[in-house]
Write a structure and sequence with these properties.
single chain; alpha/beta; Rossmann fold; 7-stranded parallel beta sheet; 5-stranded parallel beta sheet; 19 strands; about 40% helix
């Protein structure tokens, strides 16, 4: 039965790719045996309730093998009709080229190799946190399931797999079970050309249990899963020796089956070899449908028992349930903005310091807020002081120490958000190192996941560390990522508003971009401007029509206010705009944008200590965009400000010269 089920999955995948004339049949054909055993003997799921909290999570890290997952979802009874398999990789289908998490039954969007493995680690961490939060001696409803992950040679070559796997072993994530599809073939040929390490030794060194099997022997697969489930204190890596394109008489074990259709003749020969009708596409034996149907029926009994226990818990511990409901629905407490603004220190400081101070109150108010840093907590100020530490055997804390693993931190945070228990993960590093995290940032935006990236040391004013640590292009490049909310506050009030905006924004990730150096308090009346959330607002206006508009973000906003005073002393009416989120302002309706920047001849001077490219979109008025379109240098930040013209006096003189000769 398992062989017939696996062969059905193989040929469904081959038929999908053949009909689309696009895709990757090799992985699905090679891993079909492991998938068949897992999905009809072990996996907890209910296709009628794909988001059931008690389900096992399945991550296909090698997302190019998506045809395998779609075949499984169809056979298991998810909302994946056979017509969708026939529309593989076509416009508007539920079967895109790589799995996307909007599809019921798909836990995460995978494709960039290694990211899915990092997501799986994040899910396993979130499961342990959920168990600590909500389970008690009478009820153990949460986090008691497993996280399964299929990964490939490519996943394990990518550096993120090292970072994520190292942390998973360090934390002892016993309910994380990975299958390594060891078929020794990549696009360019045999892995002997590029990959000679001993993966088993590598994972034993990480602290994982390692189990080696023949990936086509169903009995060995079952035994391996049982052994992995029995291991409570270590994640497990099941190394499955497989044949890519298994069953294809002429293309098995060949790069030709990795990322291209088998071809009509070879597909027919494969069906003949496996004993399936040669001329029938998308053929599913009744016995295979019945096998899945019987298993799903069995799992529904487990599901109904879980729901009964959940209902009893809900009735008997109403306070705990209400806290659980608020967290899972990400419901923010009433009056949070007022509480946070009242909590302000009222002192001039760096925005990273303001963030660290405000974070303490936010953590008290928002139970799902779980933080961490890539070994920079003391610099990013991302520590929840009363939160405790998440560590091996203890997951009740609020602080994750990721170590120097920015790449994995991003992927793990995405997995924690995807898990579905209402966690809002945040993680800190220097802005310049956002480059290490770009794949995860982009995927968080694609998946619409509420993840908060805290980037400090936001400009050349990092100072003595020099150009390697001074971000110049990173801020503007982050603004290019669709659906990523980029916020660069200028003082404590704006920092509070930035955190609130990140907590309210549930349609994607947010990046808080914070200074190392002190910034002036620009809101002494403690009043926050509601138009902050529109990306830009008038911080200072003139009593008459302005003769100049200055637009700035972050630390340059305080300097701009000084410049405005100097210019007004000369008799020039000046309006100062705070632009904490340039891309958000550019999405506003024309009426609002024109209220801030009336179209016409009013000159607009934009200033930001980074790449100036992008500010030109602010308006069509006469415009001067002053930034830093080159790398910095090593010196105290005050010296850099003077040398590069980011002082009030230098900007004043530059504006006066420009207004006198705008063509220059």
């Amino acid at each position: 039965m398992l062989k017939q089920t696996a062969d059905t999955l193989r040929l469904l995948a081959a038929d999908m790719v053949e009909k689309a004339n696009s895709g990757h049949p090799g992985l699905p054909m090679g891993m079909a045996d492991c998938a068949a055993v897992l999905w009809t003997r072990f996996m907890l799921y209910n296709p009628e309730d794909p988001d059931w909290p008690g389900r096992d999570r399945f991550v296909l890290s090698g997302g190019h093998g998506s045809a395998l997952l779609y075949g499984l979802l169809h056979l298991a009874g998810y909302n994946m009709p056979l017509d969708e398999l026939k529309a593989f990789r076509q416009w508007g289908s539920r079967t895109p080229g790589h799995p996307e998490c909007e599809i019921p039954g798909v836990e995460t969007t995978t494709g960039p190799l290694g990211q899915g493995l990092g997501n799986a680690v994040g899910m396993a961490i979130a499961a342990r946190i959920s168990a600590e939060q909500w389970n008690n001696k009478k009820h153990a409803l949460f986090g008691e399931h497993y996280v399964y992950c299929f990964c490939t040679d490519g996943d394990l070559m990518e550096g993120v797999s090292h970072e994520a796997s190292s942390l998973a072993g360090h934390l002892g994530l016993g309910k994380l079970i990975c299958f390594y599809d060891s078929n020794r073939i990549t696009i360019d040929g045999n892995t002997d050309m590029t990959f000679s390490e001993d993966v088993g030794m590598r994972y034993r060194a990480y602290g994982w249990q390692v189990i080696g099997i023949d990936g086509h022997d169903q009995r060995q697969i079952e035994q391996a899963i049982r052994s992995a489930q029995k291991e409570k204190n270590r994640p497990s890596m099941i190394i499955a020796k497989t044949h890519i394109g298994y069953g294809s008489p002429n293309k098995q074990d060949s790069p030709a089956v990795h990322g291209a259709p088998l071809g009509a003749e070879e597909l027919q020969a494969t069906k003949r070899a496996l004993g399936f009708p040669e001329t029938e596409s998308f053929y599913i034996p009744d016995a295979v449908r019945n096998e899945f149907s019987a298993y799903v029926k069995k799992m529904k009994k487990v599901y109904l028992k879980w729901q009964k226990d959940f209902s009893n818990w809900k009735k008997k511990d109403t306070a705990a349930y209400e806290a659980y409901r608020r967290q899972t629905e990400k419901e923010l407490p009433a009056g949070l903005e007022e509480k946070l603004l009242q909590y302000r220190s009222g002192k001039a400081n760096s925005t990273r310091a303001h963030s660290g101070y405000l974070l303490q109150e936010l953590a008290r108010q928002v139970s799902g807020l779980i933080g961490g840093s890539a070994d920079l907590a003391a610099s990013n100020l991302t520590m929840i002081k009363e939160g405790g530490r998440i560590e091996r055997g203890h997951f009740s804390g609020r602080n994750i120490f990721y170590g120097i693993r920015e790449f994995a931190m991003g992927a793990i945070m995405n997995g924690m958000a995807l898990y579905g228990s209402g966690l809002i993960p945040y993680g800190g590093t220097f802005l310049v190192f956002s480059d290490y995290m770009r794949s995860s940032l982009r995927l968080a935006a694609i998946m619409k996941q509420q993840v908060i990236f805290v980037f400090t040391h936001d400009s050349i004013f990092v100072g003595e560390d020099g150009p390697t640590h001074q971000p110049v292009e990173q801020l503007m490049s982050l603004r290019l990522i669709p659906r990523l909310q980029v916020l660069r506050p200028a003082d404590e009030t704006e920092t509070a508003q930035a955190w609130l905006a990140a907590l309210r924004y549930k349609e994607g990730p947010s990046a808080l971009v914070l200074t190392r150096q002190k910034c002036k308090d620009l809101h002494p009346d403690e009043k926050a401007d509601p138009d902050f959330n529109r990306g830009a607002y008038i911080l200072k206006d003139s009593p008459c029509k302005p003769g100049l508009i200055i637009a700035a973000s972050g630390s340059e906003l305080g300097i701009s206010m000084e410049v405005a005073e100097k210019l007004e002393a000369d008799g020039l009416a000046v309006r100062v705009l705070s632009v904490p989120s340039l891309e958000k302002f550019l999405r506003q309706e024309n009426n609002y944008r024109e209220r801030l920047i009336p179209p016409g001849n009013i000159p607009v001077f934009c200033v930001e200590a980074g790449q100036s490219l992008g500010w030109q979109a602010l308006c069509k008025n006469p415009q001067y965009c002053f930034g830093l379109d080159h790398f910095g240098d090593s010196a105290p930040y005050e010296v850099l400000a003077d040398k590069y013209g980011f002082t009030a006096e230098a900007l004043y003189l530059r504006i006066r010269a420009w207004l006198k000769s705008p063509e220059e």
